[in-house]
User: Fold these one by one.
Assistant:
Number 1:
Amino acid sequence: MTTEPPTGPDTAPGARQESPARPAPALSPASVPRPAAAAGGGLREELPEEVPASASPSTEEAPPERPGSDLSGRQRLVKGLWPPRITRAQLIVALLLFGLGFGLAVQVASNSEGDSALRGARQEDLVRILDELDDRTERLEDEKQGLEEQRAELENSSDQAEEARRQTLERERQLGILAGTVAAQGPGITLVVQDPKGMVESNMLLDAVQELRAAGAEAIQVNGVRVVAGTYLSDSGDGVSVDGNKITAPYRFKVIGKPQDLEPALNIPGGVVQTLEKEQATASVERSTKIVVDALRPAKQPGYARSSSQ
């Protein structure tokens, strides 16, 4: 008796039953084919196996290599700095900075030259210079105080017209002394310069006048010639000409001022006395409590200048 194979819903009638196949290897869940829609004949179509993401071909292209990427950091720095690329703005800024630096260098050099004389001075000389500055400051303060007192007297005086006239006369006398039109007397010094070799020149005597003025001299007379603000000295043969008046050695200076300031000003290192000694001349200074300066200068009327006060 022949036994027919059982039929099922999935087996087509009349189909030959296949012998059982060997068991297939286990598949991962990702590789198990998904069922598809049935096509005519009732047969199932299988989808191709999914390709793992790691094995999928990359669709992105690699970025192109940048030129010079194989250079080292130092080589890239050198390539960026050289050759230099200078713009007009950078050139203008460079020129301005150069000018500023040059000006600062010149200023520092000038200050250094001005300080070199004091830097090489002795302690005694520095103390003397400070004393002279203090004395000059004191004189200016006294002058300021005197002017303030005059103003106060004018403001508080009952007879302001008389007080103004008195102060005007006093001021005229002071200006006359400075202008050389009025004789003067007071404490001071006498400077005598002997020149047996005839080596003293006008510029040496001019240095003496300037040193005395800087030390506070108020009236100066040289061999009978009054020295004023406009005085000039020049060489004249075997002597010196002062405002056109020729004088010869010995040169005698009569100076009114504070003796304690005038004498040290002439004896400073490298000053008037040492300069004259280098020229084989001698200079002697004598203090006095009363010096008379009686040489006068004629008063000159200005040809063009007029007072602007009403």
Note: The two ends are 166 Å apart (CA to CA).
Number 2:
Amino acid sequence: MLLAVDAGNTNVVFAVHDGTEWRGRWRIRTDAERTSDEYAVWLLTLLQHSGLKPSDITRCVIGTVVPAALYNLRRLSREWFDCEPLVARAHLDWGFDIRVDAPHEVGADRLLNALAAHHTYGGPLIVIDFGTATTFDVVGRDGAYLGGVIAPGINLSIEALHRAAARLPRIGIGRPQAVVGRNTVAAMQSGIYWGYVGLIEGIVARIRAEQEEYPVGDLKVIATGGLAPLFAEGTTVIETTDQDTTLDGLRLLAARNPAPIFTRTARRDDP
């Protein structure tokens, strides 16, 4: 079985795939100082609850945009599952070209999304990921990663608005009933929700106009991330939502690359 670890800026998602389906998914708040033992106490309990044992895990793959978290995630794999993790990096075999100026600078999550989305939906396409940042990534017909757009995430914008304006409260995100709010909270919710719908539609339209080699209808738009279904309700631009895109990318990457060699005599704290 494969243990896939998707470490983002806000949460770390752990999932187990048995070769046919995902057997479980669990998330914990990202904390770069969380030790491998702390992860283990939490994760092993959840595995047991799902009828799984540490010995069931034969491979581990990690994708992270938080470099400081990698050390203890590696230790978790080595010390508790006896396997050397495959870490998603640009130099691995992705099965496609990374056509940007500095491939090593592209976040692992964006390459993983490109890999999984093209495998499932074909290309060309635009992948929108609603995470700590809202990213738009362009994938060619042949699966090549062509670059993208990074915008502030929805929750980040809400928090910034609350912190910068003394009289504005912290709000939850939801689809408002009307564009014009009749109170402060409704007005803020409208600005955030419809503002991001406008951002989505505007950026997608500009990407489509810039990618002149592809007819407009050829560039499919796939959305992932926790808020993807909510924003898909507000626009016809998003054609499909897929919550497993990044995890599927980890699974596919592990299938394309050999497992790193792990020996018990190796130093467990190697970087």
Note: Strands lie at 2-7, 11-17, 22-29, 59-64, 86-87, 125-130, 133-139, 145-152, 220-224, 240-241.
Number 3:
Amino acid sequence: MGLYIETHIRADLDDLWARTQDPARHQRWDLRFTEIDHLPRAEGEPQRFRYATRVLPFLTVSGTGVAAGEKERADGTRTSALRFSSPHPLSLIAEGSGYWRYVPDARGVRFLTGYDYRPRWGRPGALADRLLFRPLMGWATAWSFDRLRLWLERGITPERARRNWLAELTVRALVLALCLTVLGHGSPPGLPGPFADATAYLCPLLLVPGVFLALFKAPLAGTPAARRCLRAPATRTRAPRLLKALEEHG
């Protein structure tokens, strides 16, 4: 099953196009890539590119892709399709294809993507992809789309958005750790009997909101979040269009 991600960005279509089609800007907001570079091409040839992802400080997985085509409809909708592959033996993705679609409306642009790929390593690779890698790729794409939205709508650079996310994640982890520590130790030692009993009773009740806030509170407005993006077409009628687009540009 292919991946689908959609967001709405209150921005000019040309600005959105530039920050997604220019490799130097693209690699700033897309969590999936560390480097993206256009490769030399002769006039009339499709644009090829190289991408790389730093998995560990000492390990980088790379691949190549080709722009399969671009279309612009009379209503202003634009579509950019591509194919990609990686010969790297440690890359779970062997080859794949996908597209980006830009649909302008009165409030901005609906920006969406559909893509799929073939995992390598046989059955173990297919199992690892289904249980771990594919959900991670879907989350990373959605998180990156929201980071792009913050850049265009609020002027929050991708670098600052990442710092916001790490800071909020750290605070949530500290709050959760504090709540679990207090809950595990119960009331502080040395309190008189009645106070100790009351504290032992109230502590769990007071800690519930803390745990809830740490785990479930919506992220701050300046923090990117995958949950803000659609992970499936809003209506079933769009699903065949996704498959048709992949077939047209595959």
Note: Helices lie at 13-21, 23-29, 122-154, 158-185, 193-216, 239-249.
